[in-house]
Design brief:
Strand content of chain B: 25-35%
Radius of gyration of chain A: 17 Å
CATH class of chain B: Alpha Beta
Oligomer: heterodimer
Number of strands of chain A: 5
Helix content of chain A: 10-25%
Number of helices of chain B: 2
CATH superfamily of chain B: Hotdog Thioesterase
Radius of gyration of chain B: 20 Å
Number of strands of chain B: 5
Distance between the termini of chain B: 34 Å
Structural class of chain B: mainly beta
Number of domains of chain B: 1
Order of helices and strands of chain B: EHHEEEE
Number of domains of chain A: 1
Helix content of chain B: under 10%
CATH topology of chain B: Thiol Ester Dehydrase, Chain A
CATH superfamily of chain A: Hotdog Thioesterase
């Protein structure tokens, strides 16, 4: 889990990562918190009857992992200004995925110290399932 | 989805932080939170994703007294007669899917806040898909206001519908 960053210490091209395990328990607790109880996320038989190879990770949960990574980088003294993700494909549960954020731009605007990032969910085979962008305000130092 | 009343509660914040695997004590420990810049428990920035809990029409939650339909092709609750497998369709065939989500934050959410949201349609556009015919994208903009009518979060989501169900290869 990356720790909170300061604007002075980061540089363009710098990358942050966290690994998430999508065990069925993770998907069940997400169902409870979010209210999305669609069975393709926790019921093996139901998923197979819907011609899925296995239960799949909630798209929104993958988005939330990206949001969490941005929140960690900004820390308590920074601010997640905005972020977005595109849901471009299913991820099978029970396989670890890597949530990544790469700084693409470091700049000052309106008196704020900002960074733009490219974010996403990277699978074991290197493909990216949930690409997006984010803008953070960081503490100067 | 617009919700008329979304009370932000400490227990729900704690559950939500656990569900995304966020161990920051600021989301559940009042004593720790007192010593931080916000000065009290706050919700993770992603928390409004849980507003579906307060949407009476949210379709992915079982409802008491109703057959649990899910978003599959057939009702699937334990009180529903089983359906032969070949009749079941793959999820999403010919129906709506969530394509994109965008959030803009204006301030922290904290327990005691009561949000309401209003939604309006944004742009829509079409693209030719490979297997499912035309893909129809439509944007929806949802603004969350607090009890003082201050804008706290702006969310933009893009949904996509297919012209016909995706055929299995």
């Amino acid at each position: 889990m990356p720790s909170a960053q300061t604007w002075d210490a980061v540089s363009e091209g710098q990358e942050f990562e966290l690994v998430e395990a999508s065990d069925s328990q993770r998907l069940v607790i997400w169902a409870a918190a979010s209210g999305d109880f669609y069975q393709i996320h926790y019921d093996d038989n139901f998923a197979k009857n819907n011609k899925l190879p296995d239960i799949i990770v909630h798209g929104a949960l993958k988005g939330m992992w990206v949001g969490k990574l941005l929140d960690e980088i900004a820390g308590d003294n920074g601010w997640v200004k905005q972020w977005d993700v595109s849901y471009r494909g299913m991820d099978i549960a029970r396989e670890d995925v890597t949530i990544f954020g790469k700084i693409t731009k470091k700049y000052e605007q309106g008196g704020e110290h900002l960074v733009d990032l490219e974010v996403g969910v990277r699978r074991k085979d290197g493909s990216v399932s949930t690409p997006g962008t984010g803008t953070l305000r960081l503490a100067k130092k | 989805m617009p919700v008329e009343r979304f009370p932000v509660e400490a227990g729900h914040i704690m559950l939500f932080a656990r569900s995304v695997g966020d161990a920051n004590q600021i989301y559940y420990d009042e004593n720790y939170a007192k010593g931080t810049e916000p000065g009290g428990i706050i919700a993770p920035p992603t928390f409004v994703q849980a507003s579906a809990q307060f949407d009476p029409d949210y379709g992915l939650r079982p409802k008491i007294g109703q057959k649990w339909f899910g978003s599959g092709a057939n009702p699937t609750g334990s009180n529903v007669p089983p359906v032969d497998e070949p009749e079941q369709q793959r999820a999403g065939g010919g129906s709506g899917l969530h394509a994109e989500q965008h959030y803009e934050y204006h301030r922290h959410l904290k327990p005691g806040d009561v949000l309401r949201s209003v939604s309006r349609p944004g742009e829509s556009w079409e693209r030719e898909g490979r297997r499912a015919g035309k893909l129809i994208f439509s944007e929806s903009i949802t603004e969350y206001y607090d009890q003082n009518n201050e804008l706290v979060i702006t969310a933009r989501s893009v949904g996509v519908r297919t012209e016909r169900p995706v055929q299995q290869d």
